[in-house]
Amino acid sequence: MTTATVMTTLSPADHRVTGPRVLRSETAKVWSLRSAKITVGLAMLFLVVFGWIFSGTYDPASTNQGPVDYQDAIGISLVGANFAQLVLGVFGVLIAAGEYGTGLIRSTFMAVPRRLPVLWSKAVVAGVCALVVGTAGAFGAFLIGYGLLPDGVQLPLTAPGVLRCLFGAGMYLGLVAVFGVALGMLLRNVAGGITLLVAGLLLLPELANLLPRSWNTTIAPYLPGRAGGAVMILYPDPQSLSPGAGLAVFAAWVAVTLAAATYRLKRTDA
Amino acid sequence: MIEARALTKRYGTKTAVDRVEFSVRPGVVTGFLGPNGAGKSTTMRMILGLDKPTEGTVTVLGRSYTGFPAPLTEVGALLEARSVHPGRTARAHLQGLAYTHGIPKSRVEEVLALAGLSEVAGKRAGGFSLGMGQRLGIAAALLGDPQVLILDEPVNGLDPEGVLWVRNLLTGLAAEGRTIFVSSHLMSEMALTAQHLIIVGRGRVLADTSLEEFVRTAGGDRVKVVCADPGRLSTTIAGPGVEVTGRGEELSIAGLGAREIGTAAAREGIALYELTVQSVSLEEAFMDLTRDAVEYHARSLESVGGSR
């Protein structure tokens, strides 16, 4: 067995690394990991189940004191988006930073030494998965709520703003997953990536509340979670950004993080 | 063909690789030898474009690794640290790499079979033993049918059968004209596999020599003879290239085989009490060479506890 060790001969000309090939590879890598399938499945579950529970138990009399968001059909049925954003963000962090933790990144970069296509492919895979799951989950939750909510609150799909909120939820969740990938590639560490993700989406708005009121009202609407969330709010309050502007601001946050991740990817040793 | 020119890597004030120069030629197995911390892994990572040299260059087949349009079909590598996601099966790991180059599924199965992993291909790599992990790494290195193979400590954790497999595999691939560059900190292993040696210590090249040359400068093979009349035996076998040392009835002879010495003794009627071939310890020669360059010296127990 000394010779004939390598049976197939492959010619470099037929096997160039191309964008679509890297994308194919990253897609296959996501679907061959249990943790990835679990996080994506959980996001779907959170959206649908929480929407279902909140819609089914909604009682107009007892929720009068609650936040404004939870008193319309969108606010009630999309309550699961708060949880889904975390798992989808974690999903993004995992598929990026997880490669650094396990050392797989070295194999990946030996196959794709230009590195950048790996980042883009991961961002696309995570973004598309989360977009599809988020949109499907949002529609599922809304339609379940439609069947359960009492007449005064129930809204049809055709009501103004409803479709914008549902598609917007999908787009927001898609961007959150890309945000996770960018944070994961930037920090190269799962725990660090998740910490920054939670901070960006949930903690910063809370911290902003500690600032003097005038500062808070100026800054808070531009924080990642608050800005992106604006697209899923049916009746925006005057202090938040408009749905379109909010999503654009969140997309800018994601773009800046991606740019920072790109810089680190190109400049530092793997 | 791998060529390093003034290759240097510094981390802060520490120089891991210091103006290293070498060429690795095709058709032979080249051993990259040095104690722990000598800069072997860092050098290999620079060859593979994972780490950027602080100064100098290193090329594979005449170009920098990052310039290859289809790197896996040119260069295959196994790194010392495991580089597999423990949650993925062996097959899925290789398939993920194969997709980046459009390498067919049949090739994935082929390298799995070649590495003896067909039966565990559907098992998650996290459960693999060190040896199986090494086999998976070698399978990944062979995936693209590369001309150049770079392996960092490939026999680490392998059982004797696995060690033999790697040895035969490397020799076979070199015979096909491929460039094989293998690192190790074990001289004994390299003596069996490599035809050429590049020995490093503290980031510098200490020797760049063929194995034969290394053996010769280390003292060559000697024969120990114990006989009734050492004086007469010495004069009988004396000749060009023959070196005899020793005292009393014991002689140490270089430049002649045990067979020739035995025949000569029989012809002269000298009784032999002992005739032993003594291979020089390459391990010792290697340690002599790298002694000053060892990063982490173990101290004896007395010297550690002696200060009390």
TrEMBL record, chain A:
Keywords carried by this UniProt record: Membrane, Transmembrane, Transmembrane helix
Bilayer-spanning residue ranges: 38-54, 74-98, 119-149, 161-183, 190-208, 244-265
Keyword Protein biosynthesis annotated: no
Protein name as annotated: ABC transporter permease
Protein species of origin: Actinomadura rayongensis
UniProtKB/TrEMBL annotation, chain B:
SMART domains given in the database record: AAA
Organism: Actinomadura rayongensis
Pfam families: ABC_tran (PF00005)
Family assignment from sequence similarity: Belongs to the ABC transporter superfamily.
Domain ABC transporter residues, every copy: 2-227
InterPro entries: AAA+_ATPase (IPR003593), ABC_transporter-like_ATP-bd (IPR003439), P-loop_NTPase (IPR027417)
Domain of life: Bacteria
GO molecular function: ATP binding; ATP hydrolysis activity
UniProt protein name: ATP-binding cassette domain-containing protein
Key words, A-Z: ATP-binding, Nucleotide-binding, Transport
Cited SUPFAM superfamilies: P-loop containing nucleoside triphosphate hydrolases
